[in-house]
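QA checklist item 7 of 12: single-chain prediction sanity check.
[x] sequence parsed
[x] length recorded as 120
[x] structure emitted
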Amino acid sequence: QVQLVESGGGLVQPGGSLKLSCAASGFSFDSAGMSWVRQAPGKELEWVSSISMTGIMTRYADSVKGRFTISRDNTKNTLYLNMNNLKPEDTADYYCALGGESTWKDIGSWGQGTQVTVSS
């Protein structure tokens, strides 16, 4: 059974940084592309970033490119999202999802989320 547990969210001022983590279990983590997605209040789920199973290939939404960095540690079955220069529009619940940019929604497996609030 796929289990994804996000952590690391919180309240941060504009321009600040946060690092999110996602502990994965119940599947072969090192054989799976992974993604981060987010849902802002009153909006639909939005893809943020994806990483290949080896971590060599990464992709980002234009809105976060240059500010966010996705990474993974396959020895720890953990996915990360480093977020720098945070903006109020980054406020959302963040979820790690099984699958890459084009597959995560169809696979439909993500965690309970961690809340990120960017506000002064």
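[x] summary fact logged: Residues 104-107 form the longest helix (4 residues).
[ ] second reviewer sign-off
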